[in-house]
Structure formats: C-alpha cells, structure tokens
Amino acid sequence: MKQQKGSGKKEEGETMEVGLLHELFPAMVELRRHLHRHPELSFREEETSAHIAERLQELGIEVSVNVGGYGVVGKIYGGLPGKTVALRADMDALPIQDEKTCDYASEQPGVMHACGHDGHTATLLAVGEYFAKTREQLRGEIRLLFQPAEEVCPGGATSMIAAGALDGVDVIYGVHLWTPLPVGTVASRPGALMASTDEFFIEMQGQGGHGGMPHKTVDSVVAASALVLQLQSVVSRSVDPLDPAVVTIGAIQGGTAQNIIADRCKLSGTVRCFEEGTRALIRQRIHALTEGTAQAYGAEAIINYMPGYPSLINHEREYERFMEAAPEVFGLHAELSTPIMPAEDFAYYVQKVPGCFMLVGAGNGQNAVYPHHHPKFDIDEQAMLHAAGLLIAMAESYSAEHA
Ligand SMILES: [Zn+2]
Ligand SMILES: [Zn+2]
After folding, report:
1. What's the 210 CA to ligand 1 centre distance in angstroms?
2. pLDDT at 259 over 70
3. Minimum-distance ligand to the CA of 346?
4. Using CB atoms within 10 A of its CB, is residue 403 exposed (0-12), middle (13-18) or buried (19+)?
5. pLDDT above 70: percentage of residues in the chain
6. Which residues surround ligand 2, an ion (CB under 5 A)?
7. First to last CA, the chain
8. Which helix (H) or strand (E) holds 123?
9. Residue 84, exposed/middle/buried by CB under 10 A (0-12, 13-18, 19+)?
10. Which letter does DSSP use for residue 168 in this model?
11. pLDDT at 15
12. What separation in Å is there between the alpha carbon of 372 and the centre of ligand 1?
C-alpha cells in the first residue's frame, strides 16, 4: 500500500487507495456520532439496522435485512474472480447513562454506546463504500456483516450464522476499537485472544426461622457464605496456574430482617477462561462444591449454569497476515496481545471459518481515556480510519494470496 494522500487513481501494483479512504473519513465520523446520539440496546437495534440497510442500498450494494434478528448483510461482487471475505461489525449499545458533555453524547436516557460498536458500524459502512467504489479491481466477494446483540448472550452471531450469513465465506475478519491501547497501535494474538464466559445462578434452600433459635433452622445465609469461600479454591487449587481463569461471585442476596433466619439465599457469578478443558473442569468443580457445601450444612442447592460465548481462537495464518499487513496501513504499530478476559461472540464465526479478530488502539490520553463500559467512554475517532484500513488490507491480502 502506498501512502498517497488524495491520489484518486490506483497505480499498477498498488493495492489500497489511501486517498479514497481519507475522503470517506468525515462521513465515518458523522455516522459514528449519529449512532452515538441514538444508541439502541442489544436485540433492539431496529433504527440502526434500518439506517445501515438504507445507506448500503444507496451505495448500490446488495442488501439482506432481518438476518438472524436485526442483522444486515451487504454483498459486494468484484469485477474479478476470487474468494469470499466476510467483515463483521457489531451494532448494539449498553444500558449505561452517558455522562459525557460533548455534542454527540447519547440522547437516549440510560442507553449508551460505551463499547465503541457505533465506531465499528461506521467503519464497516465506510469499508463497504470503499469496495463498492473500487469493485472493478476487487477479486471475489466482500460480505459485510452488521451484527446485532454482541453484548448479551446468546448474542447475534449464532443467529446470523444460522440464517446463512457465513454461507460460502472463506475467511472472516473483525476489529474492536480498544481504548486501553493508544491510537496508532493494533494488537492481536494467534490462538486464544478472548475468554469464554459462562454464568451461574445458585439458590441455597434452607429452613427459615427465628434469629434467636438457630438450632431449629437451616441457615441458608451461612451455607451460601461458606460456598462463596469454597468457590475461591476452584481457580487457586484446581486449575493449572499457567492457565488463566476467573471465578467471580458478583451477587449474593438473602434474608429480609436482622432477626429472621433466611430460608433461601441466592448467588450468581461468572466464569472466564481460555481452554475448553478448563471450562469443563471449572463447571464440574462448581457443581461438586455447591452440592457438597449444601449437604454439609443440611441445605439444598439448585444450580442453573448457563454457558455463554466460547473462547475466541484466532487462526495462526490469519494472525501472521495481520502482523504483515498492519504496518503497511498508515504505519500502524502491530503487537502481540496478551489474552484478555472480556468475551466476544466473534468466537462463533472463527469456529466455522478461518479468521482473525484484531484490537485497534483508540485511546489518546484526552477524551478517550476511560475503559470500555464506563459512563464517560469515548474513542479517538482516528482509530476508525485505522480500523477501516486494516480490514481493507486484510481482505486485499487474502484475496491476492488466493487469486
Ligand atoms: Zn462491550
Ligand atoms: Zn464490544
């Protein structure tokens, strides 16, 4: 790729048209800010989805709507034969009150794009426009996947896959704008990049009674408290110390008053890890400790264990492609990421076809300093240009290699 700002024409041997990408940037920012003002929660992305479908149609891109919910699929057919490359963006926001004071802050009370999915959507639309305008030189097909509901299990990826969004796709790429990384840096990892996530809900059933006569009761609060401590041993005593894992009890609820022994106490928590074997082991240990602890205290436990997203496993060759391609895109600094504990339903796509998920630095020490899911979350918008360039470079590299 040549860094020719403003050059309208593609030269012999040149791949990405950087000038065109720069021309698309103001519209990218405008769309991102529009979506930021009008965020929609997971599984309710009706307006966002309709807006994207309309824009794709205006660009002359073949569009399918309501793909596995509010999913939108755009297909761009190149002038040359080749493979099918899918690129994915998620579209949903979070139930958070926006505390920013900028003019593009959320106008929807209690709902906010606090993870950057507005930026992903705007980026992918610009990438679509880029390929629509250069389609004579394009090999094969570019498939744009605008996915609903990444933030809430079971997520939108599985339903889009079930609806055929991946049919005929040879490879898939996706990005996450990432404020913990400075703008200008991108990162990924071969193998496990992001954790699997499971949730569990436990109800400890005892026998209630008078706070002054505990011997006539089975105290569910005491049994549940013992279980919280027992569960701390799962990672520390059962999981290989070189294999990262987390078991968190996030909530405990029981009882109504200081002088009543509660007959029931509820616990809920989350499990994060990277290996499927570890995931199964943790689930088995939670069951065993819950049943054993309940029995030891004369209580009964009901466990509702809900598997969530699997670990996101990048393909080795596609990770290598990322390391080769990224420095060619605006001179981005590409680095090996450590595994990270948040989960991503992009994991389901790379279970089906080869691909790579990449983190694009969006932090800048000014407005974009807050972590994801924070009420003041913001991105450095320049990161969208980097993300678009990276997605285009990955698609072009794959298509050229498999021409
Ligand atoms: Zn998120
Ligand atoms: Zn996210």
Report:
1. 45
2. yes
3. 2
4. exposed
5. 96
6. 115
7. 18
8. helix 117-133
9. buried
10. T
11. 67
12. 6
Q: What is the number of the ligand closest to the CA of 121?
A: 2
How many angstroms separate the alpha carbon of residue 379 from the centre of ligand 2?
Answer: 12
Q: How confident is the model at residue 13 (pLDDT cuts 50, 70, 90)?
A: very low
At 124, phi and psi to the nearest 5?
Answer: -65, -35
Ligand nearest to the CA of 372: 1
Predicted confidence (pLDDT) per residue in 17-28, tens digit? 899 999 999 999
**What spacing in Å lies between the alpha carbon of 115 and ligand 2's midpoint?**
5
Residue corresponding to tokens 């709902």: 111
Alpha carbon of 151 to ligand 1 centroid (Å): 6
Average pLDDT over residues 254-259: 97
| Catalytic residue set | 92, 150
> How do residues 280-316 score in pLDDT, each as one tens digit?
999 999 999 999 999 999 999 999 999 999 999 999 9
pTM of whole model > 0.85? yes
Q: Residue 116 Cα, ligand 2 centroid: separation in angstroms?
A: 6
Tokens 């610009």 label which residue? 126
Residue in the block written with tokens 């605008």: 146
Spatial separation of the C-alpha atoms in residues 17 and 8, rounded to whole Å? 7
Q: Which comes out higher in pLDDT, residue 225 or 12?
A: 225
C-alpha 313/C-alpha 192 separation (Å) is 4
Among the bound ligands, name the one nearest to the CA of residue 118: 2
